[in-house]
Amino acid sequence: MPVSSDDEAVLQFPILIGDIGGTNARFAIVVDANSEPGETRIVQTASFASIDEAIQQAVLDHTSLRPRSAVLAVAGPVDGDEIRLTNCPWVVRPKAMFDTLGLHDVVVLNDFEAQALAVVALGEEHMEKIGPGEPEENAGRVVLGPGTGLGVAGLIHASHKWIPVPGEGGHMDIGPRTARDREIFPHLEAIEGRISGEQILCGRGLVNAYRAVAKADGKEPRFSTPAEITAAALDKSDAIAVEALEFFVTCLGRTAGDLALVFMSRGGVYLTGGIAQKIVPALKAGNFRAAFEDKAPHSALMRDMPVYVITHPLAALNGLAAFARTPSRFGVETAGRRWQA
Ligand SMILES: Nc1ncnc2c1ncn2[C@@H]1O[C@H](COP(=O)(O)OP(=O)(O)OP(=O)(O)O)[C@@H](O)[C@H]1O
User: Fold this and answer.
1) Would you state the pLDDT for residue 45?
2) In CATH, 123-310 is 3.40.367.20
3) Taking CB atoms and a 6 Å cutoff, what residues make up the pocket around ligand 1?
4) Is 286 flagged in the annotation as binding?
5) E-state strands within 77-191
6) What is the pTM of this model?
7) The ligand 1 atom nearest the CA atom of 272
8) 272 is in an annotated binding site
9) Residue nearest to atom 31 of ligand 1 (CA)
10) ipTM rounded to 2 decimals
11) How many Cα atoms sit within 13 Å of 26 on the Cβ side?
């Protein structure tokens, strides 16, 4: 049965850490409380029948270290002894891992919680700042990650701990603001009649935005993938792609600003995930900050809030490593998500 309390927060070293996405899984081993994670192993989830096989072949077969504990972040709800992943056929069975991998203690977190932990773990050298403002130490923070979907988490500091607040903020409504928005919005593909953040602010959403911009002007869209659209927008070779990316960063600024108001994130707003890193020039061009700060009567407050893009390629793994080394630094509830042999 899952352990019902996290009183015994300390994990025994060596600790295997793993960030399991829909497409890629990244693993490393933390040997003690003072060490950085060892060599990172990155595998495609589709190359292995199970997570146990991936850990055995990609990690354990290459080291004499025998992890006693594991902290795994997965894309999907952690509920019960069998954890199914979104966008990947792997099933995480922590109790079976005691036998198959020799583990004694397994903690399973949500992938976006790991991104939130990374915000605390990584220094500014792993971030690119978008606009003005300085972070207030220990003030609230917000993490937004446009990727396959739109992940959102708050991060608050209380009782000397950083507490991630996971949620489904990527599914909040988003609406038009300008006359041009009102021409584009009717052409966006909706979900049950609604435009949520995720209809625009993710890979699929960028394609949706691009098609809507084309339709608003009666033009034929040429591209079908997010990468094609960002490439054509960044080198300014296609006017529809340029406007689609401007629309995307404007909507991202609008949603980031709303979330910053909710969490009063004077500690900063942090953009994570695969897409933000690839569109830094577009985020710096001005539309993002203008939309972020356009929050009357609180525009002055918004102008002082810093925004960062996390540029570290293994941010979530760093967040997990920080948690594995010193779990007491974080208010991460492990009840129902920790299994001990
Ligand atoms: N150059 C690019 N510009 C814009 N979007 C891109 C680009 N390259 C990839 N994408 C999109 O980014 C999304 C994937 O984002 P991300 O890399 O954050 O993945 P993920 O959901 O975290 O998955 P995993 O953890 O398995 O890698 C996909 O929708 C993909 O089409």
Assistant:
1) 94
2) yes
3) 21-24, 147-148, 203, 226-227, 230, 273-275, 278
4) no
5) 83-84, 91-92, 105-110, 127-129, 141-146, 150-158, 161-166
6) 0.92
7) 18
8) no
9) 203
10) 0.94
11) 19
